[in-house]
C-alpha cells in the first residue's frame, strides 16, 4: 500500500480529444502518472506532443475527455488556489507595481492572514526570489528575468500544493536562465514544493528534477519513459558538467528524444521526397 504522500498527485488514464469542424484529434492517450509530495518532475517531449495540454488538465484549465486527476485526495475539476501556474511569458499586470502584483494573489488566497501578516508575507516571498529591492517598480521597468522572478514569487506566495511551471525559463537568455534555475533549486530545497515543470531543455531537466517524464510524439501521445535522477542535492551545474552519472542521464533523455522519438518529417517534405523519387524513377 502506498501512502497519501506517495500518491500526492495522480493522473489516471487521461485521454484528451480536441474536436473542430467534426474532425477529432486525440492528443493524449492513457496518460498515467503518480507524483510524490515534494517531488520535482519535468515533462519533456517534442513540440506539439501535448505537454501543455496535460499541464492544463492538471491545472483544471481544461478537462480530460476520459480519466481524472487527483491532488491530495481531491479530484481536480477546475482551477484552484492549491495549484499555481507560472508561464514562459510572465503574466504580470503592467499597471501594478511588483509589490501589488504579488499582493493581488496574496489578498485573494491568504484570507486567514491579517493585513500586517499579508504585508510581511508579500515581502518574504519577494525576498525569496531576490526582488525586495524593486517592489515599487512596474513590470515595464524591470528585465525579463526579474519579471519571471516576480511571477515565481507570486506563485509561491499562494502556498500551492502543486507548482505548475510551463517553460518558466524559456524566454530568458542563457545566463539569466542559469541563475534563475539555481534560485529555484535553492527555494525548492527550502520549501520542498511539489513541482510539475514543462521544459525543452535537457540540461535543465536533469539538473532540477527528481524524475523526468518523457512523452512520446503525438497524436495519441503518452508517457514513454520515466527517468529517475538520482543525483545528490544540492546540485552544482559546474561540478555536474563532468559527472559521469549526470552525463549518463543526459544521454538517456537525448536518446529518447532523438532516437526513440525522432520527430517525423512534415508531410509536405515527405511528399516532395516521394515526388522526387517518382520523377527519378521515370
Ligand atoms: N484548444 C485546442 N484546440 C484544438 N487543438 C489543440 C488545442 N490546444 C492544443 N491543441 C493541439 O494539441 C496538440 C498538443 O498541443 P500542446 O500545446 O499541448 O503541445 P506541447 O507539447 O505543449 O507543444 P510545445 O512544446 O510546442 O509548446 C497540438 O496538435 C495542438 O495543436
Automatic annotation (TrEMBL):
Residues 9-242 form the ABC transporter domain. Belongs to the ABC transporter superfamily. One of its GO terms (cellular component) is plasma membrane. PROSITE patterns: ABC_TRANSPORTER_1, ABC_TRANSPORTER_2. The keyword Zinc does not apply. Keywords: ATP-binding, Cell membrane, Membrane, Nucleotide-binding, Transport. It comes from Venatoribacter cucullus. It is a peripheral membrane protein. This is ATP-binding cassette domain-containing protein. CDD domains: ABC_NrtD_SsuB_transporters (cd03293). The keyword GTP-binding does not apply. It is found in: Cell membrane. The lineage of its organism: Bacteria, Pseudomonadati, Pseudomonadota, Gammaproteobacteria, Oceanospirillales.
Amino acid at each position: 500500500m502506498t501512502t497519501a504522500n506517495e500518491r500526492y498527485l495522480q493522473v489516471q488514464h487521461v485521454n484528451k480529444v480536441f474536436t473542430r469542424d467534426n474532425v477529432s484529434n486525440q492528443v493524449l492517450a492513457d496518460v498515467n502518472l503518480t507524483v510524490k509530495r515534494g517531488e520535482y518532475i519535468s515533462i519533456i517531449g517534442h513540440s506539439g506532443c501535448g505537454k501543455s495540454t496535460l499541464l492544463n488538465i492538471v491545472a483544471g484549465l481544461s478537462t480530460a475527455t476520459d480519466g481524472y486527476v487527483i491532488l491530495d485526495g481531491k479530484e481536480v475539476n477546475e482551477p484552484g488556489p492549491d495549484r499555481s501556474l507560472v508561464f514562459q511569458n510572465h503574466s504580470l499586470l503592467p499597471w501594478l507595481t511588483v509589490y501589488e502584483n504579488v499582493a493581488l494573489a496574496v489578498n485573494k488566497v491568504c484570507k486567514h492572514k491579517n493585513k500586517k501578516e499579508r504585508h510581511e508575507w508579500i515581502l518574504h516571498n519577494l525576498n525569496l526570489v531576490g526582488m525586495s529591492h524593486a517592489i515599487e517598480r512596474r513590470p515595464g521597468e524591470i528585465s525579463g528575468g526579474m519579471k519571471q522572478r516576480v511571477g515565481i514569487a507570486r506563485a509561491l506566495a499562494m502556498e500551492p500544493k502543486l507548482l505548475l511551471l510551463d517553460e518558466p525559463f524559456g524566454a530568458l537568455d542563457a545566463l539569466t536562465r542559469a541563475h534563475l534555475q539555481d534560485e529555484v533549486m535553492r527555494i525548492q530545497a527550502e520549501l520542498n514544493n511539489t513541482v510539475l515543470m514543462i521544459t525543452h531543455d535537457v540540461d535543465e531537466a536533469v539538473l532540477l528534477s527528481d524524475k523526468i517524464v518523457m512523452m512520446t510524439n503525438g497524436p495519441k501521445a503518452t508517457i514513454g519513459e520515466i527517468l529517475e535522477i538520482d543525483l545528490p542535492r544540492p546540485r552544482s551545474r559546474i561540478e555536474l558538467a563532468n559527472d559521469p552519472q549526470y552525463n549518463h542521464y543526459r544521454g538517456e533523455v537525448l536518446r529518447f528524444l532523438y532516437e526513440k522519438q525522432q520527430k517525423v518529417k512534415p508531410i509536405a517534405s515527405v511528399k516532395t521526397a516521394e515526388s522526387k523519387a517518382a520523377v527519378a524513377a521515370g
